[in-house]
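Q: My labmate handed me this sequence with no annotations at all. I'd like to see what the chain might look like in three dimensions before we decide whether it's worth expressing. Could you predict it?
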Amino acid sequence: MYGQIIIFVLAFASASLITTTTVWNQWAVNGPTSSSVLTAIWAWRGIWGDCMQMYGGQYQCEEMQSMLNERGYILAIRAMMCIALSLSVIGCFITLVGMECSKLLDDNLSAKRNLMRISGILFLVAGVLTLASVAWYTGIVVEDFFSVFTQDNMIIYEMGAALYLGFVSSALAFLTAILCFCMPGPKPEDEHSPPYKYTPTGYTVREPYETKVQIPKSKDKYSEYV
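A: Here is what I predict for the chain of 226 residues:
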């Protein structure tokens, strides 16, 4: 039971970090290589908009309005992160129902084990989508940073905190999936107990079998001398 509590904590943490990564706009930030004119300006961007903060604390964000005007990789990363977010949240609820300490489906341990496996699949897919998204965006940021066409730009972006958070959240999702497969819960009694039980008259079929079969005991080879 304690192992499944750890699984739920990891699942909740993974879903929370994936959500934060999705909505946080600090996927890329301006670094020290930017123009010296922007020493009093901090710029950052994400998959939903570009922002810029002045020295006095005021900032302005330009949200990406039209999907038709956006670059293809931004739309793809948005879609993958939204799917990963949805799968991780659904996986949290399924994990909560499939835990051994949960009262839901308490009389059906097989269903609980299947729910934990389903939750593991959901977190595995969510981890893959999150890792693919942040790795893709990281590759674009690195390519633009070393590109000769962006060296004269006033703002040169580097990797932001949201990317590092995305790598951590994908690792937690993979760990949650592995634990869901390794610790789905206790097996039902009829799965790990022998089908027969010993009685004074012989071996009898265990419940829930309706018919009982009497198997005679083997004759002792020394009984004929008694």
